[in-house]
């Protein structure tokens, strides 16, 4: 098994703080799969503050004999998105893909070529956008050895002949314990810890500090499984924001999630947020 991509380093801890929370939204997700193997997924949400509604439809079809995956998306902003990917054909562990998007109302078109390769010790990702004026090249790599992970991420603007991103990361994973640290552009320092304390309890800690402004962020979170169909979540940060969540599987293919964000500094002033999400799968 190859190391994770650079963007997935520390994902276990981030999931503790992000999954199961939908503050200020009414959300609906639906997924299904046809007998021919075409996957359909649609999602929509309504912002409780602005009343704005956003929706998206995605279809995905895989040709396993050739390692091909075709993905098409459309959203209510009237943006069309297409991706064609081929996996493990030219070389085991190599994935090549092309992404394209088109907004008919504005005429904006974007394209991106992507390549990713992974083996037991290395995971490399790169992409370049299709821009004749000067493409932006993104590249990242993660090296893993005996639980240790070291990663580097960079972006190069060919139009300006300048490196615009310069990130480093170091981590360690061992069974139920994951440690992650990173430095972004020499300005933002971050770290996270994930610990699976038991089969029912997952805990996470996140910390970040930005030089210059001396802004510090700190948070702790946990997820506890009451049984195989229900779980509760809680998190709190140094701004006294408290997040609570409850997830219940009502029946096969139907999951309800309730969440709330409480402002501990202004508890009596109100302004707290709630979120409701319903997931349907068949």
From TrEMBL:
Kindly state one GO CC term assigned in the UniProt record. pore complex
Q: GO molecular function: any one?
A: porin activity
Identify the main location: mitochondrion
The cellular location(s) given in this protein's UniProt record come to:
Mitochondrion outer membrane
Keyword set, alphabetical order: Ion transport, Membrane, Mitochondrion, Mitochondrion outer membrane, Porin, Transmembrane, Transmembrane beta strand, Transport
Instruction: State the superkingdom.
Output: Eukaryota
Q: Does the keyword Membrane apply?
A: yes
By sequence similarity, the record places it as follows: Belongs to the eukaryotic mitochondrial porin family.
UniProt keyword Transmembrane helix, yes or no: no
| Name assigned to this protein | Putative voltage-dependent anion-selective channel
């Amino acid at each position: 098994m190859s190391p994770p991509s650079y963007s997935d380093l520390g994902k276990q801890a981030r999931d503790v703080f992000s999954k199961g929370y939908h503050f200020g939204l009414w959300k609906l997700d639906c997924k299904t799969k046809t007998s021919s193997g075409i996957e359909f997924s649609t999602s929509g949400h309504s912002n409780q503050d602005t009343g704005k509604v956003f929706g998206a439809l995605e279809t995905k079809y895989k040709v396993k004999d050739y390692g091909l995956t075709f993905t098409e998306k459309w959203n209510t902003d009237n943006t069309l998105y297409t991706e064609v990917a081929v996996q493990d054909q030219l070389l085991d562990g190599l994935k090549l893909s092309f992404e394209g998007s088109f907004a008919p109302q504005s005429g904006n078109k974007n394209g991106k070529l992507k390549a990713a390769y992974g083996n037991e010790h290395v995971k490399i990702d790169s992409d370049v956008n299709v821009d004749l004026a000067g493409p932006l090249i993104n590249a990242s790599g993660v090296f893993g050895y005996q639980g240790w992970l070291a990663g580097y991420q960079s972006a190069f603007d060919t139009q300006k002949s300048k490196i615009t991103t310069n990130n480093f990361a170091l981590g360690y994973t061992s069974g139920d314990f994951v440690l992650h640290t990173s430095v972004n552009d020499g300005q933002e320092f971050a770290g996270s810890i994930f610990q699976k304390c038991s089969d029912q309890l997952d805990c996470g800690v996140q910390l970040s500090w930005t030089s210059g402004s001396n802004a510090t962020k700190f948070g702790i979170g946990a997820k506890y499984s009451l049984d195989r169909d229900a779980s509760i979540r809680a998190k709190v940060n140094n701004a006294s924001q408290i997040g609570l969540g409850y997830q219940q599987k009502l029946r096969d293919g139907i999951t309800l999630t309730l969440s709330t964000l409480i402002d501990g500094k202004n508890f009596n002033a109100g302004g707290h947020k709630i979120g409701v999400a319903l997931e349907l799968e068949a």
